[in-house]
C-alpha cells in the first residue's frame, strides 16, 4: 500500500461476535448484541482473513482459533462479523481498535473477553522496504533448502489438515466461498491484478526452469495412466465447433485395448508413434503388426 492509499478513508474496525451468546453487551460507549471475542482493523477483505487462516491453520493465536472452532462445531456456522466503524483513515482505525480492546479487555490479561494477544494500534500497513533491505533478505535465503524431514512434515500437515475436524472445515470453507467468492468479487479481483499489477507480470521461466518443471511433472505422474483427463473428458476444441474424434485402440483381433479423446494419450500409454497410429484404421493395415485405430466423430458443442 502506498502513502496515497494510507491517506484515504478506506480503513475500518471489525468485531467478531459469538452467536452462541446473544444479549446486550455494553462496554463503556461500545455496545453489541452478542458477546465480542476479537477486534481488528483493516481494509478491503481483511475482516475475512481469520476464517481463512483457521481453515488453512495459519493462525498462531490459539485463543481465537479455539473459539472459532467451538462456534463452528456447535452452531454449524461461522462467527458473526460486523464492521463497527468504516471509512476511516489508517491512523483513526488504529486508535479506535486500541480503544475498543482496552475498554473490553483481553482474556490473556484477565481483563475481559477478547482473544486479542496485543493492545492493537500496531500494524505495517504501507510498509515499504528499501532495495537494500530486499537484497539482504534475498541473500539470506540463497542456498537454503528444507531437509527431507522438514519437507515430509510439511507434506503431512497439508495432507492431514482435512482429516482432523474435516466436517467442520468443509462447512466453514463452503460457507466462506459461497458468501465471498461472488461474481462481483472475482471480477474486482481480476481487474485488480490485471496486467502489470499481477505479481507474475513479466516473470518468465528460463529453459532450465521449464526443463526442471517438466521432469518433476513427468516423475510425479499425476496425469499419467487413468488419471489423464483426455480419457474421460472431450477437449474443448476450436471455437468454430468442428467435428472431433474419439479414438479406440484395437489389437489385430479387434479386441479393445483403450479409448481416449486424445490419440497422443494412447500413443504414450503404448509407447508408439502417434503419427503411425493416425495412418492406421480398422479397414486398413495394422500399425507395427499389432494395433488398429477406430475413429468416431462427435460434435463438440462446448
Mean pLDDT: 77
| Quaternary structure state of the chains depicted | single chain
Number of DSSP-assigned strands: 6
Give the number of helices.
11
Overall 3D form: elongated
The largest pleated sheet is described as: 3 strands, antiparallel
Radius of gyration from CA coordinates: 28 Å
Helical residue percent band:
25-40%
Cα end-to-end separation? 42 Å
Structural class: alpha+beta
Q: What sequence of helices (H) and strands (E) makes up the elements?
A: HEEHHEHHHHHHEEHHE
Number of self-contained structural domains: 2
Q: Which runs of at least 5 residues are low in confidence (pLDDT < 50)?
A: 237-242
Summarize the structure in short.
This protein has 302 residues and is α+β, with helices and mostly antiparallel strands. The chain is 39% helix and 21% strand. The strands form two sheets. The chain has a three-stranded antiparallel β-sheet.
Provide structural commentary.
With 302 residues, the protein is of the alpha+beta class. It has helices at residues 3-6, 49-56, 62-75, 90-104, 131-141, 148-160, 166-180, 183-192, 207-220, 263-270, 274-278; strands at residues 11-27, 30-43, 80-88, 243-251, 256-260, 291-299. A three-stranded antiparallel beta sheet has the order 2-1-3. It has a three-stranded antiparallel beta sheet with strand order 5-4-6, with helices on one face. It is elongated. The two termini are 42 Å apart.
Amino acid at each position: 500500500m502506498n502513502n496515497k492509499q494510507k491517506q484515504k478513508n478506506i480503513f475500518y474496525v471489525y468485531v467478531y461476535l459469538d452467536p452462541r451468546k446473544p444479549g446486550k453487551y455494553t462496554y463503556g460507549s461500545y455496545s453489541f448484541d452478542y458477546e465480542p471475542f476479537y477486534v481488528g482493523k483493516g481494509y478491503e477483505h481483511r475482516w475475512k482473513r481469520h476464517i481463512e487462516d483457521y481453515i488453512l491453520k495459519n493462525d498462531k493465536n490459539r485463543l481465537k482459533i479455539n473459539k472459532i472452532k467451538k462456534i463452528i462445531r456447535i452452531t454449524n456456522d461461522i462467527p458473526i462479523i460486523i464492521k463497527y466503524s468504516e471509512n476511516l483513515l489508517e491512523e483513526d482505525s488504529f486508535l479506535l481498535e486500541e480503544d475498543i480492546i482496552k475498554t473490553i479487555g483481553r482474556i490473556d490479561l484477565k481483563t475481559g473477553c477478547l482473544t486479542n494477544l496485543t493492545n492493537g494500534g500496531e500494524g505495517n500497513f504501507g510498509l515499504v522496504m528499501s532495495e537494500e533491505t530486499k537484497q539482504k533478505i534475498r541473500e539470506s535465503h540463497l542456498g537454503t533448502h528444507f531437509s527431507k524431514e522438514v519437507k515430509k512434515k510439511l507434506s503431512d500437515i497439508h495432507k492431514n489438515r482435512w482429516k482432523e475436524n474435516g466436517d467442520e472445515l468443509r462447512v466453514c470453507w463452503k460457507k466462506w466461498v459461497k458468501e465471498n467468492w461472488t461474481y462481483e468479487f472475482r471480477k474486482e479481483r481480476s481487474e485488480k491484478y490485471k496486467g502489470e499489477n499481477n505479481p507474475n507480470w513479466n516473470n518468465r521461466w528460463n529453459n532450465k526452469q521449464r526443463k526442471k518443471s517438466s521432469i518433476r511433472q513427468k516423475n510425479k505422474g499425476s496425469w499419467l495412466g487413468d488419471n489423464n483427463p483426455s480419457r474421460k473428458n472431450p477437449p474443448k476444441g476450436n471455437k468454430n465447433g468442428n467435428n472431433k474424434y474419439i479414438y479406440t485402440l484395437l489389437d489385430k483381433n479387434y479386441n479393445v485395448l483403450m479409448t481416449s479423446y486424445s490419440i497422443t494419450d494412447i500413443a504414450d500409454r503404448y509407447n508408439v508413434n502417434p503419427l503411425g497410429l493416425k495412418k492406421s484404421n480398422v479397414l486398413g493395415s495394422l500399425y507395427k503388426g499389432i494395433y488398429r485405430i477406430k475413429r468416431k466423430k462427435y460434435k463438440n458443442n462446448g
